[in-house]
Amino acid sequence: MREIPSLEFSLSGKVALVTGAGRGIGLGIAVSLARAGADLVVADFDSNVAEEAAMQIRALGHRAVALRVDVGQADSVSAMIDQVAEHFGGLDIAVNNAGVVSLGKVSELSVTEWDRIMNVNARGVFLCCQAELKLMRARQSGRIINIASIAGKVGFPDLAHYSASKFAVIGFTNAFAKEVAREGITVNALCPGIVGTGMWRGEEGLSGRWRLPGETEAQSWERHQSSLLPQGEAQTVEDMGQLAVYLACAPHVTGQAIAVDGGFSL
Ligand SMILES: NC(=O)c1ccc[n+]([C@@H]2O[C@H](COP(=O)([O-])OP(=O)(O)OC[C@H]3O[C@@H](n4cnc5c(N)ncnc54)[C@H](O)[C@@H]3O)[C@@H](O)[C@H]2O)c1
Fold this sequence. Notes:
This is Meso-butanediol dehydrogenase / (S,S)-butanediol dehydrogenase / diacetyl reductase. The chain has 8 helices and 7 strands, in the order βαβαβαβαβαβαααβ. By secondary structure, the chain is α/β, with parallel strands linked by helices. 46% of the residues are buried. Residues 19-20, 22-26, 44-46, 49, 69-72, 97-101, 120, 147, 149, 192, 194-195, 197-200 line the site of nicotinamide-adenine-dinucleotide (NAD).
Protein backbone atom coordinates (compact mmCIF):
# COMPACT_ATOMS: atom_id res chain seq x y z
CA MET A 1 0.00 0.00 0.00
CA ARG A 2 1.25 3.52 -0.85
CA GLU A 3 2.64 5.28 2.20
CA ILE A 4 0.90 8.54 3.04
CA PRO A 5 3.54 11.13 4.03
CA SER A 6 2.79 12.86 7.33
CA LEU A 7 2.68 16.65 7.39
CA GLU A 8 4.87 17.71 10.27
CA PHE A 9 4.26 21.13 11.71
CA SER A 10 7.87 21.60 12.67
CA LEU A 11 9.90 24.62 11.58
CA SER A 12 13.01 23.53 13.38
CA GLY A 13 16.14 24.78 11.58
CA LYS A 14 14.11 27.27 9.47
CA VAL A 15 14.64 31.02 9.29
CA ALA A 16 11.56 33.25 9.16
CA LEU A 17 11.22 36.97 8.47
CA VAL A 18 8.09 38.83 9.65
CA THR A 19 7.49 42.49 8.80
CA GLY A 20 5.41 44.67 11.10
CA ALA A 21 6.39 42.14 13.78
CA GLY A 22 6.67 44.62 16.64
CA ARG A 23 3.05 44.27 17.71
CA GLY A 24 -0.37 42.88 16.82
CA ILE A 25 -0.79 40.14 14.23
CA GLY A 26 2.87 40.28 13.12
CA LEU A 27 4.09 39.69 16.67
CA GLY A 28 1.55 36.87 17.16
CA ILE A 29 2.68 35.17 13.94
CA ALA A 30 6.37 35.59 14.85
CA VAL A 31 5.75 33.94 18.24
CA SER A 32 3.80 31.06 16.63
CA LEU A 33 6.59 30.46 14.08
CA ALA A 34 9.15 30.47 16.90
CA ARG A 35 7.04 28.05 18.97
CA ALA A 36 7.05 25.75 15.91
CA GLY A 37 10.86 25.89 15.94
CA ALA A 38 11.92 28.75 13.64
CA ASP A 39 14.57 31.40 14.20
CA LEU A 40 13.25 34.87 13.48
CA VAL A 41 14.04 38.20 11.92
CA VAL A 42 11.50 40.66 13.32
CA ALA A 43 11.33 43.84 11.26
CA ASP A 44 9.24 46.89 12.01
CA PHE A 45 9.05 50.61 11.25
CA ASP A 46 9.35 51.12 15.02
CA SER A 47 12.75 49.77 16.10
CA ASN A 48 11.81 49.78 19.82
CA VAL A 49 8.89 47.37 19.39
CA ALA A 50 10.99 45.25 17.03
CA GLU A 51 13.65 44.89 19.74
CA GLU A 52 11.01 43.99 22.36
CA ALA A 53 9.59 41.36 19.98
CA ALA A 54 13.08 39.90 19.45
CA MET A 55 13.55 39.64 23.24
CA GLN A 56 10.24 37.77 23.49
CA ILE A 57 11.37 35.29 20.80
CA ARG A 58 14.78 34.81 22.45
CA ALA A 59 12.98 34.01 25.72
CA LEU A 60 11.38 31.08 23.84
CA GLY A 61 14.89 29.75 23.16
CA HIS A 62 15.28 30.83 19.53
CA ARG A 63 17.62 33.19 17.70
CA ALA A 64 15.99 36.51 16.89
CA VAL A 65 17.30 39.61 15.15
CA ALA A 66 15.44 42.94 15.28
CA LEU A 67 15.59 45.25 12.25
CA ARG A 68 14.08 48.60 11.41
CA VAL A 69 12.39 48.71 7.99
CA ASP A 70 10.02 50.88 6.02
CA VAL A 71 8.43 48.35 3.66
CA GLY A 72 7.31 51.08 1.27
CA GLN A 73 10.92 52.12 0.53
CA ALA A 74 12.93 49.96 -1.86
CA ASP A 75 16.32 50.86 -0.30
CA SER A 76 15.08 50.00 3.18
CA VAL A 77 13.66 46.62 2.05
CA SER A 78 16.85 45.80 0.18
CA ALA A 79 18.95 46.61 3.29
CA MET A 80 16.65 44.37 5.38
CA ILE A 81 17.19 41.41 3.05
CA ASP A 82 20.97 42.01 3.07
CA GLN A 83 20.84 41.85 6.88
CA VAL A 84 18.82 38.61 6.79
CA ALA A 85 21.47 37.06 4.52
CA GLU A 86 24.28 38.35 6.73
CA HIS A 87 22.79 36.99 9.97
CA PHE A 88 21.33 33.70 8.74
CA GLY A 89 22.75 33.01 5.26
CA GLY A 90 19.31 32.43 3.73
CA LEU A 91 15.55 32.69 4.21
CA ASP A 92 12.94 29.93 4.40
CA ILE A 93 9.74 31.75 5.38
CA ALA A 94 8.64 35.36 4.82
CA VAL A 95 5.49 36.88 6.28
CA ASN A 96 4.76 40.26 4.70
CA ASN A 97 2.47 41.60 7.37
CA ALA A 98 3.24 45.33 7.81
CA GLY A 99 0.14 47.33 6.98
CA VAL A 100 -1.72 50.54 7.73
CA VAL A 101 -5.38 51.58 7.68
CA SER A 102 -7.33 54.83 7.67
CA LEU A 103 -10.94 55.83 7.14
CA GLY A 104 -12.25 58.11 4.42
CA LYS A 105 -15.05 58.31 1.90
CA VAL A 106 -13.98 58.28 -1.76
CA SER A 107 -15.59 61.73 -2.22
CA GLU A 108 -13.26 63.18 0.42
CA LEU A 109 -10.14 61.04 0.28
CA SER A 110 -6.94 62.94 -0.60
CA VAL A 111 -4.55 61.58 -3.19
CA THR A 112 -1.83 61.73 -0.52
CA GLU A 113 -3.81 59.40 1.75
CA TRP A 114 -4.59 57.01 -1.12
CA ASP A 115 -0.84 56.89 -1.93
CA ARG A 116 0.17 56.39 1.73
CA ILE A 117 -2.06 53.33 2.17
CA MET A 118 -1.18 51.84 -1.22
CA ASN A 119 2.52 52.49 -0.60
CA VAL A 120 2.72 50.40 2.56
CA ASN A 121 0.06 47.76 1.90
CA ALA A 122 0.48 47.02 -1.83
CA ARG A 123 3.87 48.40 -2.91
CA GLY A 124 5.38 47.13 0.36
CA VAL A 125 4.25 43.57 -0.37
CA PHE A 126 5.65 43.78 -3.92
CA LEU A 127 9.02 45.16 -2.75
CA CYS A 128 9.35 42.56 0.01
CA CYS A 129 8.39 39.63 -2.26
CA GLN A 130 10.85 40.77 -4.94
CA ALA A 131 13.70 41.04 -2.43
CA GLU A 132 12.83 37.80 -0.58
CA LEU A 133 12.71 35.90 -3.89
CA LYS A 134 16.44 36.49 -4.41
CA LEU A 135 17.28 34.53 -1.25
CA MET A 136 14.65 31.82 -1.81
CA ARG A 137 15.50 31.32 -5.49
CA ALA A 138 19.11 30.62 -4.53
CA ARG A 139 17.88 27.54 -2.64
CA GLN A 140 14.88 26.74 -4.88
CA SER A 141 12.76 26.70 -1.74
CA GLY A 142 10.59 29.11 0.22
CA ARG A 143 7.23 29.98 1.76
CA ILE A 144 5.83 33.48 1.35
CA ILE A 145 2.72 34.57 3.25
CA ASN A 146 1.25 37.97 2.43
CA ILE A 147 -1.18 39.39 4.97
CA ALA A 148 -4.26 40.66 3.15
CA SER A 149 -7.67 41.08 4.83
CA ILE A 150 -11.36 40.29 4.55
CA ALA A 151 -11.35 43.80 3.06
CA GLY A 152 -9.36 42.20 0.23
CA LYS A 153 -12.34 39.95 -0.53
CA VAL A 154 -15.28 42.28 0.20
CA GLY A 155 -15.52 46.08 -0.01
CA PHE A 156 -16.34 48.14 3.09
CA PRO A 157 -17.60 51.75 3.04
CA ASP A 158 -14.98 54.25 4.29
CA LEU A 159 -12.26 51.72 3.43
CA ALA A 160 -12.15 51.87 -0.41
CA HIS A 161 -8.44 52.77 -0.45
CA TYR A 162 -7.60 50.08 2.14
CA SER A 163 -9.79 47.52 0.29
CA ALA A 164 -8.08 48.41 -3.01
CA SER A 165 -4.67 47.81 -1.43
CA LYS A 166 -5.74 44.41 -0.03
CA PHE A 167 -7.47 43.29 -3.26
CA ALA A 168 -4.13 44.19 -4.88
CA VAL A 169 -2.28 41.93 -2.43
CA ILE A 170 -4.55 38.98 -3.28
CA GLY A 171 -4.23 39.45 -7.06
CA PHE A 172 -0.48 39.93 -6.80
CA THR A 173 -0.14 36.83 -4.62
CA ASN A 174 -2.02 34.61 -7.06
CA ALA A 175 -0.03 35.82 -10.09
CA PHE A 176 3.34 35.69 -8.30
CA ALA A 177 2.61 32.17 -7.01
CA LYS A 178 2.24 30.98 -10.61
CA GLU A 179 5.54 32.61 -11.64
CA VAL A 180 7.52 30.70 -9.00
CA ALA A 181 5.44 27.51 -8.78
CA ARG A 182 8.18 25.34 -10.35
CA GLU A 183 10.89 26.69 -8.04
CA GLY A 184 9.81 25.13 -4.76
CA ILE A 185 8.38 28.44 -3.58
CA THR A 186 4.77 28.86 -2.43
CA VAL A 187 3.03 32.22 -2.11
CA ASN A 188 -0.27 32.61 -0.27
CA ALA A 189 -2.37 35.38 1.23
CA LEU A 190 -3.73 35.12 4.77
CA CYS A 191 -6.87 37.20 5.25
CA PRO A 192 -7.60 38.10 8.89
CA GLY A 193 -11.16 38.95 9.86
CA ILE A 194 -11.36 41.15 12.96
CA VAL A 195 -8.51 40.99 15.45
CA GLY A 196 -8.36 43.22 18.53
CA THR A 197 -4.96 44.81 17.81
CA GLY A 198 -4.07 48.50 17.78
CA MET A 199 -5.64 48.66 14.32
CA TRP A 200 -9.11 48.02 15.83
CA ARG A 201 -8.95 48.91 19.51
CA GLY A 202 -8.71 52.24 21.34
CA GLU A 203 -10.03 55.66 20.40
CA GLU A 204 -7.72 55.79 17.35
CA GLY A 205 -8.62 52.25 16.22
CA LEU A 206 -11.53 51.35 13.91
CA SER A 207 -13.94 50.60 16.78
CA GLY A 208 -13.14 54.00 18.33
CA ARG A 209 -13.68 55.85 15.08
CA TRP A 210 -16.80 53.83 14.10
CA ARG A 211 -18.55 54.54 17.44
CA LEU A 212 -22.27 55.36 17.30
CA PRO A 213 -23.43 58.43 19.26
CA GLY A 214 -23.35 57.60 23.00
CA GLU A 215 -21.50 54.32 22.46
CA THR A 216 -18.19 53.53 24.20
CA GLU A 217 -15.26 52.15 22.24
CA ALA A 218 -15.70 48.78 24.00
CA GLN A 219 -19.41 48.68 23.05
CA SER A 220 -18.53 49.52 19.45
CA TRP A 221 -15.97 46.68 19.46
CA GLU A 222 -18.64 44.24 20.74
CA ARG A 223 -21.18 45.47 18.18
CA HIS A 224 -18.79 45.05 15.25
CA GLN A 225 -17.91 41.50 16.27
CA SER A 226 -21.53 40.40 16.63
CA SER A 227 -22.90 42.26 13.59
CA LEU A 228 -20.12 41.42 11.11
CA LEU A 229 -19.00 37.93 12.03
CA PRO A 230 -21.19 34.80 11.71
CA GLN A 231 -19.44 33.27 14.74
CA GLY A 232 -20.06 36.50 16.64
CA GLU A 233 -16.60 36.79 18.12
CA ALA A 234 -13.27 38.24 17.04
CA GLN A 235 -10.30 36.20 15.90
CA THR A 236 -7.00 36.20 17.77
CA VAL A 237 -3.38 36.68 16.77
CA GLU A 238 -2.90 33.01 17.69
CA ASP A 239 -5.53 32.05 15.06
CA MET A 240 -3.41 33.87 12.47
CA GLY A 241 -0.27 32.19 13.80
CA GLN A 242 -1.80 28.72 13.37
CA LEU A 243 -2.56 29.29 9.68
CA ALA A 244 0.87 30.88 9.15
CA VAL A 245 2.58 27.78 10.61
CA TYR A 246 0.47 25.54 8.38
CA LEU A 247 1.29 27.58 5.25
CA ALA A 248 4.96 27.63 6.23
CA CYS A 249 4.89 23.81 6.14
CA ALA A 250 2.47 22.95 3.31
CA PRO A 251 4.23 22.16 0.02
CA HIS A 252 1.25 22.11 -2.33
CA VAL A 253 -0.92 25.01 -1.22
CA THR A 254 -0.07 28.06 -3.33
CA GLY A 255 -1.74 31.11 -4.87
CA GLN A 256 -4.55 31.02 -2.30
CA ALA A 257 -6.20 33.75 -0.24
CA ILE A 258 -7.33 31.98 2.93
CA ALA A 259 -9.54 33.83 5.40
CA VAL A 260 -9.54 33.31 9.15
CA ASP A 261 -12.71 35.28 9.77
CA GLY A 262 -15.25 33.19 11.62
CA GLY A 263 -17.26 32.47 8.47
CA PHE A 264 -17.53 36.03 7.10
CA SER A 265 -16.23 35.58 3.55
CA LEU A 266 -16.03 32.99 0.78
N1 LIG B 1 -6.37 43.77 13.05
C1 LIG B 1 -7.23 43.31 12.16
O1 LIG B 1 -8.39 43.04 12.46
C2 LIG B 1 -6.81 43.08 10.73
C3 LIG B 1 -7.77 42.58 9.85
C4 LIG B 1 -7.42 42.33 8.53
C5 LIG B 1 -6.12 42.56 8.10
N2 LIG B 1 -5.20 43.04 8.98
C6 LIG B 1 -3.84 43.25 8.46
O2 LIG B 1 -2.93 42.57 9.31
C7 LIG B 1 -1.67 43.26 9.31
C8 LIG B 1 -1.25 43.58 10.74
O3 LIG B 1 -2.28 44.36 11.31
P1 LIG B 1 -2.36 44.66 12.89
O4 LIG B 1 -3.79 44.66 13.23
O5 LIG B 1 -1.42 43.80 13.63
O6 LIG B 1 -1.85 46.18 12.88
P2 LIG B 1 -1.05 47.00 13.98
O7 LIG B 1 -1.29 48.43 13.61
O8 LIG B 1 -1.39 46.55 15.35
O9 LIG B 1 0.48 46.62 13.70
C9 LIG B 1 1.07 46.94 12.47
C10 LIG B 1 2.59 46.93 12.64
O10 LIG B 1 3.14 47.26 11.35
C11 LIG B 1 4.17 48.24 11.53
N3 LIG B 1 4.28 49.06 10.31
C12 LIG B 1 3.43 50.00 9.86
N4 LIG B 1 3.90 50.57 8.75
C13 LIG B 1 5.08 49.98 8.47
C14 LIG B 1 6.06 50.13 7.47
N5 LIG B 1 5.91 51.05 6.49
N6 LIG B 1 7.15 49.34 7.49
C15 LIG B 1 7.32 48.42 8.47
N7 LIG B 1 6.44 48.24 9.48
C16 LIG B 1 5.34 49.01 9.48
C17 LIG B 1 3.73 49.06 12.73
O11 LIG B 1 4.82 49.74 13.32
C18 LIG B 1 3.11 47.99 13.63
O12 LIG B 1 4.06 47.42 14.49
C19 LIG B 1 -1.88 44.49 8.42
O13 LIG B 1 -1.42 44.23 7.12
C20 LIG B 1 -3.38 44.68 8.44
O14 LIG B 1 -3.84 45.38 7.31
C21 LIG B 1 -5.50 43.32 10.28
